[in-house]
Structures are given as C-alpha cells and as structure tokens.
Amino acid sequence: MSNIYDLANELERGIRALPEYQTVVEQKAKIDADAEAKALLDEFMSFQQGLYMKMQAGQMPSDEDQVAIQGMGAKIEANPVLKSYVEAQQALSVYLADIEKIVFGPLQDLN
C-alpha cells in the first residue's frame, strides 16, 4: 500500500497541474499588477473576514453589512480583472469540493 503522505503529495501536484488552477494563478498575477483591482480585492477579503469573525461569535451580519457586501460584489462584477479571477476560482472550487467529499468520505462513515 502507498504511503498516505505520498498520496497527499501526489494530489497536491495534481491540483497544481489542473488547467483551472493555472488559470487562477494567471488571474491572480493580473490582479497583483492592477493596483485598483488589488485594493478592491483586499478590501473585500478584509470585510469578508470580519463577517466571518462576527458569525463565529454568534452574530448575524447587519443590514448595513449586507448592503456593503452587495456593493462590493457589484464593484467586483464591474471590474473585468476581478470578475475573471472570481470565475476562475469558482471553476477550481468544483474540483476542490469533489476532492473534499472523497477525502472526508471515510470520516463521514464514522458518524
């Protein structure tokens, strides 16, 4: 039987070789080269992290938070560089969700 760590490393290499992963890397490089897109993405990620922390503390996002996140989402949709990045991430996330189901399947069997 193969060493489980060897299999995990092989999976990592497989993910990095996916065209969808390469597209995310390319789109991220475009964001890093575009100050406006980078600032907007950083703002969005920071805000999203704040919402996550609120929810972890048992607080629901306020109406103002929901309006703010919708506004940021609209700005991201309007920015072609960010829109392409989000679309690329979504395509990659399909693979990652499938892999997660496979990897955690044995743990689900224990419940």
From TrEMBL:
Pfam families: Com_YlbF. Belongs to the UPF0342 family. InterPro entries: Com_YlbF, YheA/YmcA-like_dom_sf. This is UPF0342 protein SAMN02910293_02121. It comes from the Bacteria. SUPFAM superfamilies: YheA/YmcA-like. The lineage of its organism: Bacteria, Bacillati, Bacillota, Bacilli, Lactobacillales.
